[in-house]
Write a structure and sequence with these properties.
The complex is a heterodimer of chains A (111) and B (114).
Chain A: E1 9-13, E2 18-23, E3 31-38, E4 45-50, E5 55-56, E6 61-64, E7 70-75, E8 84-92, E9 105-110
Parallel strand pairs in A: 1-9
Antiparallel strand pairs in A: 2-7, 3-4, 3-8, 5-6, 6-7, 8-9
Chain B: E1 4-7, E2 10-13, E3 19-25, E4 31-37, E5 43-51, E6 54-57, E7 64-66, E8 76-78, E9 87-94, E10 104-105, E11 109-113
Parallel strand pairs in B: 2-11
Antiparallel strand pairs in B: 1-3, 3-8, 4-5, 4-9, 5-6, 7-8, 9-10, 9-11
Classes of the chains: A mainly beta (111), B mainly beta (114).
């Protein structure tokens, strides 16, 4: 399975944008890039996913490099409720391939 | 409300006993999954099911069993053969297991062996 590399932790100030990086140099053509986040003692929550083009939704934006070997999750205006562990995951479109979670990035938001 | 429900939220078990964790979804999803999470770690896949009456082992299936008799239900049994069962257990579902589908997670069951 293609793997992802994320920083262990990042800090942000409240109401400022946050850019969470993810490297996935061994990504294959059938791999989608997914982002989930997990608050303490809760189940993960879907944030966004994409294949080749940048994606926007109400929660965040996903910027995908042209060679697809890296991506960035963008929170446009961090709030205290965005403090969580963010997971960048590759999920193949081939049958039988599941979400494989790594260590993620712990985002801390300072008031 | 549509969603995925895990029960109970907290579960205590005596060593050597089997215990079953419930997972129910009313999203009409074909695929369901069980993950385990240890403190400070990411999630690891135990079992998954792509369709009713079918399931496959994940990365850490030893000591666990599942059934998928109904589309909406995917119970996980932690058997006495699981050597270190204390963990946070998460159930998820998705429309199918394709790469472009999002997964919905329950709120988890925290199992403690006493």
């Amino acid at each position: 399975d293609a793997k992802t590399t994320q920083p262990n932790s990042m800090e942000s100030n409240e109401e400022e944008p946050v850019h969470l990086p993810c490297n996935h140099s061994t990504i294959s053509g059938t791999d989608y890039i997914h982002w989930y986040r997990q608050l303490p003692s809760q189940g993960p929550e879907y944030v966004i996913h994409g294949l080749t083009s940048n994606v926007n939704n109400r929660m965040a934006s996903l910027a995908i490099a042209e060679d697809r070997k890296s991506s960035t999750l963008i929170l446009h205006r961090a709030t205290l409720r965005d403090a969580a562990v963010y997971y960048c995951i590759l999920k193949s479109n081939n049958a039988g391939n599941m979400l494989t979670f790594g260590g993620g990035t712990r985002l801390m938001v300072k008031p | 409300d549509g969603g995925i429900t895990q029960s109970p939220k907290y579960l205590f078990r005596k060593e050597g006993q089997n215990v079953t964790l419930s997972c129910e979804q009313n999203l009409n999803h074909d695929a369901m999954y069980w993950y385990r999470q240890d403190p400070g770690q990411g999630l690891r896949l135990i079992y998954y099911s792509q369709i009713v009456n079918d399931f496959q082992k994940g990365d850490i299936a030893e000591g666990y069993s599942v059934s998928r008799e109904k589309k909406e239900s995917f119970p996980l049994t932690v058997t006495s053969a699981q050597k270190n069962p204390t963990a946070f257990y998460l159930c998820a579902s998705s429309v199918h297991d394709g790469g472009g589908t999002e997964a919905f997670f329950g709120q988890g069951t925290r199992l403690t062996v006493v």
